Amino acid sequence: MKKVSKYLSKASLLKEWENIQAAQKNPKHFRKIYEKHYESIFRFVYSKVHDDFLAADLVAQIFLQAMQNLHKYQFRGVPLSAWLFRLAHNQIAYYFRQQKKQQFLALEKANVQELTEENYFGEDQGIFSEKNKALLKRILNNLSISEIQLIEWRIFENRQFKEIATLLNLSANTVKMRFYRLLDKMRKRINAQVQAA
C-alpha cells in the first residue's frame, strides 16, 4: 500500500493559518476549511462507524463544533487537520459511550501486509507466513482502543509523532515512547505465540 504524505510545507502551513485567521474574523470564510477537510474527516469517521448516514451526521456535528470553536484555535506549527481529527476522535468516542457500543478496527489484508513489510517487528520477518498473519490480526484485535488508534495514525495513516501528539494532547516524545512500547509488546506476543505453536 502506498503511503500518502501528511506533511505540509512551511509555506502551506502559513497559507492555511491565513485562511484560519480569515475564518476567525468572518465565519463565511469557514467554507474553505470545510471544503478542504470534509472528505478526509468523513473517511476517518466512516472507518469507525461503517454507516454512511451516521458518518454524515457525526461529521456535520464535528464541523459545527469546529466552526463554533475556531476562535479558540491557536497555530502550533501543525496542520489544522490535526485539530479537526482530534474533534472527530472525541465525537466518535462520545458517540460510542452514549450508545454503549465498542469500537473495532476493520483490518484489511493490505493493512496487515503493510505492517509486516515495514520491518516494525525486527529482522525475523520470516515469521509472517500467511498463517502467522492471522495471528497478527488476532493480536491487533485484542489491543485497547487507544493502542489501535495509535497504530492506525502512525502506521496506516503515516502521521507524524508531532501531529499525533496534537490529536492526543500529549508531547511528541510521549507519543513516540508509547508507540515503540506498543510495538515491543506486540513483538513479544507474536514471538511467544509463534514459539508455542
Keywords:
197 residues; mainly alpha
3D architecture notes:
Helices cover 71% and strands 0% of the residues. By secondary structure, the chain is mainly α. It has helices at 10-25, 30-49, 52-69, 80-99, 109-117, 130-141, 145-156, 161-168, 172-196. Mean pLDDT is 80; it is low at 1-5. It folds into two domains: 10-99, RNA polymerase sigma factor, region 2, helix turn helix motif (Rna Polymerase Sigma Factor, Chain: A, Orthogonal Bundle), CATH 1.10.1740.10; 109-196, Arc Repressor Mutant, subunit A.
User: Under the CATH scheme, which class of the largest domain?
Assistant: Mainly Alpha
**CATH superfamily name of the largest domain?**
RNA polymerase sigma factor, region 2, helix turn helix motif
Derived from helix and strand composition plus strand pairing, the structural class reads mainly alpha
Residues in helix, %: over 70%
- Shape annotation: globular
**Helix run count:** 9
| Tally of separate domains | 2
What is the subunit arrangement here?
single chain
Largest sheet: none
Distance N to C terminus: 30 Å
Q: Radius of gyration over alpha carbons?
A: 19 Å
Mean pLDDT: 80
Tell me the number of strands: 0
- N-to-C SSE string, H for helix and E for strand: HHHHHHHHH
Low-confidence stretches: 1-5
CATH architecture of the largest domain: Orthogonal Bundle
Percentage beta strand: under 5%
